[in-house]
Each structure stands twice: as structure tokens, then as C-alpha cells.
């Protein structure tokens, strides 16, 4: 017997955390009956469905996409505006598995985004306990002095949440356009976190790109294109999400 949310996650529907919300929202049925109890356990003989679609296990797949601007890191447009979804790029290229993004990038943010149908894999990568680093390149309005970036290194309040200490450095300045390109490394993933961090020190983000997710980048991949993760990359990410950032230094 397995917990219902785990069965849904292992089937590649979504992460375990989101599966729990689906259950609470009444979107899950067991043997035809709506189940809203998170502690519910099911066996292999039970028929589980989400949004009236039967849950069936499928081979686990793992991808990295160079997310372009102007698409949602989601499996559906919650606002019903029929905007482009990041999964559309993979579906249109023939990926048939029920994949979903590992975390989210804002609609106008570009760069590295992982996708999978392995809910446990996604959930462990996103858990802040294991401090999986994400590296961003932010084009900000204005040219901050070194001391003005110090608060980011110590952690800043972004509205009811204090961020963990970040790594930050100025990559390039553009005096002509009064802007700077800054690299920021964080392991959290709060809503609009990077933008809110820079706003807190008075330097709003004009353009944002995720350059790396742990050690994964999108060099050689044009915006909208993707590639499967290599087996050794998946293995490293699994170990990283289990043992924390020190794993790669061993």
C-alpha cells in the first residue's frame, strides 16, 4: 500500500506536493469516488484518476530546456489566457510522457529549466533542505557599488521572508545605458525571489536569465530547444538532492 499522493507523483502527473493539493481540491478519484484525505493509501488493484484521467505508470524521463521569454513554466494556464506553456515545446517535438517543470521561471525569465515526469525527483530537487544552487544573470537598472550588494550576501527581507545568504558579483557594467549585469547564486525558489531581492536594494531587474541549475546549463541549446539529461547527470542530481551541495566537492 502506498500513499495516494506518492502514487500520483510516481506516475509522473506532478510533484508530490502538488499532488496533495490536487487531492484536497477534489480532483482525485479512487475507484470512481472523490478522495480528499491526504492519508489515504491505495494498492495496485485500486483505480486512481486525476481530473478523470486514469493514472498509469510510465518510464521516467528527464529534460533540460532553454526556456524562452513569453511562456509559462506550468502544465496549464491558470488564468485561462491560452498562453504558450513551456511543455508545449516538448510536446510539439514528440515527447509523449506527462512531464512538468521542476519549479518555475517567470513568464519573462529565460534559461535553464528542468522537466520530468518523476515527481519524487522533482520534489527532492526543489526542497530547500538540500540547498541545490541556481545561478542567475540579472540585468539591473543602475550600477550598484560593491557595498550595496552586501545585504544580498547576508540575506534580505523580501516581504515576510528573509532570504538565505547569496553569492553575488558584478559581471559587467554598461555606463552608457546605466545598467549592470550581476550574477546571483541562491538555493531557494520563492515567488519572484530574484526580482524582489534586487528591488529590496533599489536596483530593479530589467532582464533575467537562469544560467545554471546546479551544474546543468544550456550551452549550445537555442531558446525553445531542449535535450534529454544524460544518465550520469540524473544520477548526480539525485545524489545532490539527497546529500546537499558538498556532494559535488567530494
Can you describe what's shown?
Helices cover 22% and strands 26% of the residues. The chain is α+β, with helices and mostly antiparallel strands and 250 residues long. It folds into 3 domains: 2-54, RNA-binding S4 domain (Structural Genomics Hypothetical 15.5 Kd Protein In mrcA-pckA Intergenic Region, Chain A, Roll), CATH 3.10.290; 62-128 and 218-249, 2-Layer Sandwich (Alpha-Beta Plaits), CATH 3.30.70; 133-213, 2-Layer Sandwich (Alpha-Beta Plaits). The strands form 3 sheets. Strands 7, 8, 9, 10, 11, 12, 13 and 14 form an 8-stranded mixed β-sheet that branches. Strand 5 (48-50) and strand 6 form a beta hairpin. Helix 1 (4-10) crosses helix 2 (16-24) and helix 4 crosses helix 7. The radius of gyration is 20 Å and the shape is elongated. It starts with a strand and ends in a 7-residue tail after the last helix. The model has no long low-confidence stretch (mean pLDDT 92).
Major beta sheet summary: 8 strands, mixed
Oligomer state equals single chain
Structural class given helices, strands, pairing? alpha+beta
CATH level 1 name of the largest domain: Alpha Beta
Share in helix? 10-25%
Contiguous low-pLDDT stretches (5 residues minimum) are: none
Residue fraction in strands: 25-35%
Pfam family, one: S4
GO molecular function, one term: rRNA pseudouridine synthase activity
EC number: 5.4.99.-
Enzyme class: isomerase
